[in-house]
Amino acid sequence: PLVISLFVAIAIVAMVVDDFILPIMYRDGIKTMDACKKFLSFKPSWGQIVLYVLLKIGLGIAAAIIAFVVALVVGLAFLIVALVIGIPGGLIVGAVPFLKPVFIGLGIIALIAGVLGLIVLVGLVTLPIPIFFRAFALSYLFRLFPDYNLLRFNPSEPSS
């Protein structure tokens, strides 16, 4: 329990540093410890920080479920394509056995290309998730400290 508590505390501190301290460092051009001091000098509402951590945990669970479902769908689509290509290839090899080494070589190359393509496609399809979390962190920082409007929100304009 003590080790788990330590890991949870380290994860929360790392999240606060990544989501709040780093943008302060970027905007003000200062080092990490100076940004930590500046963040603490703002006297943030710890209730809002705890709410942010809980929101991020909940959204992270939802994002993990969505990413898993998307990866599963993309993986099944790749499996169907592999079967559509592989079954006729197996039938051809059965009919013309001297082409077996050629088809095995092509199959290995197609397998490598397919796995690499699957990795890239899953990465591209799930790319909005980390972008959302970065924008969420920056908008929450703006909500806490209006001087840190790094996304250039204009709260005076009505939304359409």
Q: What structural category arises from helix and sheet content?
A: mainly alpha
Q: What low-confidence regions span 5 or more consecutive residues with pLDDT below 50? A: none
Largest sheet: none
Rg of Cα set: 25 Å
Number of DSSP helices? 5
How would you spell out the order of helices and strands? Answer: HHHHH
The residue fraction in helices comes out at over 70%
Q: Overall 3D geometry?
A: elongated
Ends apart, CA distance between termini: 50 Å
Mean pLDDT: 88
Strand content: under 5%
Give the tally of β-strands. Answer: 0
Write structural notes for this entry:
The protein has 160 residues and is mostly helical. Helix content is 81%, strand content 0%. The chain is built from five helices and no strands. The protein has helices spanning 2-28, 32-41, 46-95, 100-125, 128-144. Helix 1 (2-28) packs across helix 2 (32-41) and helix 3 (46-95) runs antiparallel to helix 5. The longest helix is centred in the middle third of the chain and has 50 residues, at 46-95. The radius of gyration is 25 Å and the shape is elongated.
Short précis:
With 160 residues, the chain is mainly α.
List keywords for this structure.
160 residues; 81% helix
List the helices and strands and how they pair.
Blueprint: H1 2-28, H2 32-41, H3 46-95, H4 100-125, H5 128-144
Helix pairs in contact: 1-2, 3-4, 3-5
